[in-house]
Amino acid sequence: MTAPSDRPNPPLVVLGLDPGSRVTGYGLVRDDGGRLVFVDAGVISLGAADMAARLGRIHTELSALIVRHCPVEAALENVFVSRNTMSAIKLGQARGAAMAACAVAGLPVASYEPTVVKKAVVGVGRADKDQVAFMIARVLGVSGRLPADASDALAVAVCHLNERRMRRLTGCVK
């Protein structure tokens, strides 16, 4: 039997994040020799506290999650810019708090557009949240219903692992 460190591609855990100013979704997926395995997923519900307290909570809870699960890379969904400028700013701040937690832990961070994530998981860049949740449950063998933000975060992690695998196969390793 081959020791885990002797494998050509040892298991790799990726933290996927769907940052939000009210709810931040997280999902951890392990690539075990090309087989994607569900590790953990959930949400950080931030309530109506002032923005500084919400950002601090995102950083603190993600930092604890990183210590608990030891991911080696992180991937975030890019901010969807709508017509409401203040909402976009708050989303950007939440994303910054999440990125800071990853950076402090020494994790490389990749970013993906929502349409790229949806296309990677569902095959359609304009898929709705239910389609993403359905495919994530199928791909990762998750039973029961996950919160939408957790499914989205898992989708980001799966997208990143697929992108990583494609770069490795094509020789375009970053």
TrEMBL record:
Positions bound to Mg(2+) 1: 18, 149
Cellular localisation: Cytoplasm
Annotated signal sequence range: none
Binding site for Mg(2+) 2: 77
Keywords carried by this UniProt record: Cytoplasm, DNA damage, DNA recombination, DNA repair, DNA-binding, Endonuclease, Hydrolase, Magnesium, Metal-binding, Nuclease
Highest taxon in the source lineage: Bacteria
GO CC annotation: cytoplasm; Holliday junction resolvase complex
Cofactor: Mg(2+)
Catalytic activity: Endonucleolytic cleavage at a junction such as a reciprocal single-stranded crossover between two homologous DNA duplexes (Holliday junction)
Family matches, as InterPro entries: RNaseH-like_sf (IPR012337), RNaseH_sf (IPR036397), X-over_junc_endoDNase_Mg_BS (IPR020563), X-over_junc_endoDNase_RuvC (IPR002176)
Main location per the UniProt record: cytoplasm
BP GO terms, sorted: DNA recombination; DNA repair
Active site feature: 18, 77, 149
GO function term, MF aspect, one: DNA binding
Subunit structure: Homodimer which binds Holliday junction (HJ) DNA. The HJ becomes 2-fold symmetrical on binding to RuvC with unstacked arms; it has a different conformation from HJ DNA in complex with RuvA. In the full resolvosome a probable DNA-RuvA(4)-RuvB(12)-RuvC(2) complex forms which resolves the HJ.
Function: The RuvA-RuvB-RuvC complex processes Holliday junction (HJ) DNA during genetic recombination and DNA repair. Endonuclease that resolves HJ intermediates. Cleaves cruciform DNA by making single-stranded nicks across the HJ at symmetrical positions within the homologous arms, yielding a 5'-phosphate and a 3'-hydroxyl group; requires a central core of homology in the junction. The consensus cleavage sequence is 5'-(A/T)TT(C/G)-3'. Cleavage occurs on the 3'-side of the TT dinucleotide at the point of strand exchange.
Family (UniProt): Belongs to the RuvC family.
UniProt name for this protein: Crossover junction endodeoxyribonuclease RuvC
